[in-house]
Design brief:
The protein is 14% helix and 33% strand. With 261 residues, the protein is of the alpha+beta class. Strands 1, 2, 3, 4 and 5 form a 5-stranded antiparallel β-sheet that branches. Strands 7-8-10-11-12 form a 5-stranded mixed beta barrel. The longest helix is centred in the first third of the chain and has 22 residues.
């Protein structure tokens, strides 16, 4: 008679199985169950790396990253996704179905990551796979090297296709909108002009009356209020309404504040 006993019960008295067809069936069931347990214990974990991912899973990862990167991009933008490798110290159990997904609140630009979770396997694991998302689009660049303090003119700027996701900061496409702006840091020839390269413009002073606009799904409202601080382009400022209510919004133009809801 074959018996399998867990370590914690090795001293326990073995059960008595009587001979006969029923007894033989019970013994056979115990043997099969024991073999299944032993096989599960003997199954080694696998190391999941990007180069070992199936072609189908790699394609899914790239599609998820591309979809996440394309929100708000111009139609002509070109997106490339480079898939990295997982931490080599990870030991992951075998999985029949691995699902890639976008981690909530994570931007699919530059160096970022895609989530991978096991949807069908003995162990439900969840890990992050590093990816690099490149977004190529036309933007304004410096024709030649420019020093900090340079006042921009259209003659100093050109257009080139660059990876706009390579660095932080918005890029520009209209040279006329940059005329008269001042650089706060030097630019190399062919380097993109980004919002962080420019001296912030002051759109209003503390105490000025400003227009606060708020938009949401299916509606848009605008109200006047009093700025409680200097309004520098792209920065947040507090505005007090006549009712005494105070809101915080982003300075977007001449006496214009935008509140995102």
């Amino acid at each position: 008679m074959f018996q399998i006993r867990p370590p914690s019960m090795m001293q326990a008295r073995p059960p008595v199985l009587r001979a006969g067809r029923v007894g033989r069936c019970v013994v056979a069931g115990l043997v099969l169950s024991g073999l299944t347990v032993l096989q599960a214990w003997a199954q080694p974990p696998v190391q999941l790396e990007a180069q070992t991912l199936s072609a189908d899973l790699l394609s899914q990862v790239q599609q998820v990253a591309q979809a996440g990167a394309r929100g708000g991009l111009p139609a002509q933008a070109r997106v490339e996704v480079q898939v990295g490798v997982l931490d080599p110290r990870l030991k992951l159990a075998p999985c029949a179905v691995v699902q890639p997904y976008l981690p909530p609140g994570l931007q699919m630009w530059g160096r970022t990551r895609i989530g991978l979770r096991c949807a069908q396997g003995p162990v439900r694991w969840n890990v992050s796979l590093p990816v690099t998302v490149k977004v190529y689009a036309k933007a304004l660049v410096a024709n030649d090297a420019l020093a900090a303090g340079t006042q921009l003119t259209q003659a100093l700027l050109g257009t080139a296709e660059i990876d706009i996701a390579a660095e932080a900061g918005a890029v520009f496409t209209d040279a006329a909108s940059l005329t008269g702006r001042t650089l706060v840091r030097p630019l190399g020839a062919g380097e993109a002009v980004r919002s962080g390269s420019l001296k912030a413009r002051q759109w209003f002073a503390a105490g000025d009356t400003v227009m606060v606009r708020a938009a949401g799904p299916g509606y848009s409202v605008a109200r006047e209020g009093q700025a409680m601080a200097v309004g520098l382009e792209g920065q947040n400022v507090k505005v007090r309404f006549e009712s005494g209510r105070i809101v915080t919004g982003r300075v977007v133009g001449d006496r214009q504040v935008e509140v995102l809801l």
